[in-house]
Amino acid sequence: MSRTPLAFVVQRYGREVTGGSEALARAVAERLSPFHEVTVFTTCARDYVTWRNELAPGEDVVDGVRVRRFPVEEERDLAAFNAFAEPLYARPRTRIEEIEFLRRQGPFVPALVEALRSEKERFGAVVFFTYLYYPTYWGLQAAPERALLVPTTHDEPPLRFSVFRDVFALPRAFAFLTPAERDLVDARFGVGGRPAAVAGMGVDVAEPGDIAAFRARHGLAGPYALYAGRIDAGKGCAAMLAHHERYRLERGGAAELVLVGRLAMEEPRQAGVRHLGFLSEEEKAAAMAGAVAVVCPSPYESLSIVLLEGLALGTPGLVNASSPVLKEHCLRSNAGLFYEGGEEYAECLDVLVRDGALRSALGANGRRYVDAEYRWNVVLDRWRGLLAAMERAP
């Protein structure tokens, strides 16, 4: 049986690359490869902060998927970029300024765009991941006829730039991660009659192993809440830490806050907060399974794999209500609580610590939600249906 060729366009790709949209692109590419000949167009960058070329250019095969890497022509100085970009968020912009924003933000890879332009005819679909970056904007200009966009959208300042109206006008089809993301895009840009699906992303979680042994290794005798991911003020971590400090001052028998992941801010030194660094997948699963809640403090999310991993393990979520996606997960699943500000954070965490029956009920709901919506067999059925609908569309 012949396999229809597909092109995937994503800013970074590989086993050593971490990141939400990059992880999604790799997971979908690998799982579609038995049914399609997938070629990934990407860069030589491993780090999204600088876009420095660290991986070899040219062709490679990564876990059965053909990968073509193109060198980034300009490294990014993040401080200089922020000094240029932040004033643009607060005032009207010219189109020239917005195009310059795309270039400076990067990754600046004109050779990738030209390769896509010259080879697009051989692909049944060209799938772009993340609306925000240079390869998506210029790649869509180069290959709009077969374009399927996975925008991974959340409501952030650049989404208001006029150049991104082009990004959402050109694709023939869309794959969204959540209903909230679909509704945001439709309200802002309009999906129209084009094929679209809330495809989501499958969740695979390691077996947690011995939770008691994990607790003993890390000296966790009492209840704890868990944050997993990049520890960064931009991810809501500074506010979370302030909320947790208030909670500890106001509540007896308070839970600790355990942080797992890379530090992108000064390491917290406050009482009741523990940074464990990177953990293996098995150790992370044990950390999640033993927690009273997985805390998701970011106001900007398009899916949150960490939340879904926690729900799959039967651990409730405690999420920032400012994120429509996170709040929607809690409402649709009935498996988590959401907070606005420090007082509600403290109230919600206190309830989850003290009410074991509530935790068990929310945990059971979370498992059912992930099984129904975010297992790979469900997600791949949606992807195959969307690609078929795209082929049928005029």
Care to describe what's here?
The protein is α/β, with parallel strands linked by helices and 394 residues long. It folds into 2 domains: 4-202 and 375-392, Rossmann fold (3-Layer(aba) Sandwich); 211-372, 3-Layer(aba) Sandwich (Rossmann fold), CATH 3.40.50. The protein is built from 15 helices and 14 strands. The protein is globular. The model has no long low-confidence stretch (mean pLDDT 94).
Report the sheet-strand fraction.
15-25%
Quick one: CATH class of the largest domain?
Alpha Beta
Q: How many discrete structural domains? A: 2
* Strand neighbour order, sheet with most strands: 3-4-2-1-5-6-7-8
The CATH homologous superfamily of the largest domain is called Glycogen Phosphorylase B
Mean pLDDT: 94
- Coarse morphology: globular
Distance between the termini: 25 Å
Query: What is the H/E order?
Result: EHEEEHHHEHEHEHEHEHEEHEHEHEHHH
User: How many whole angstroms does the radius of gyration measure?
Assistant: 21 Å
Report the CATH topology name of the largest domain. Answer: Rossmann fold
How many strand units?
A: 14
Structural class, by secondary structure, is alpha/beta
Low-confidence stretches: none
Instruction: Identify the CATH architecture of the largest domain.
Output: 3-Layer(aba) Sandwich
Specify the biggest β-sheet: 8 strands, mixed
Q: Figure out the total of helices.
A: 15
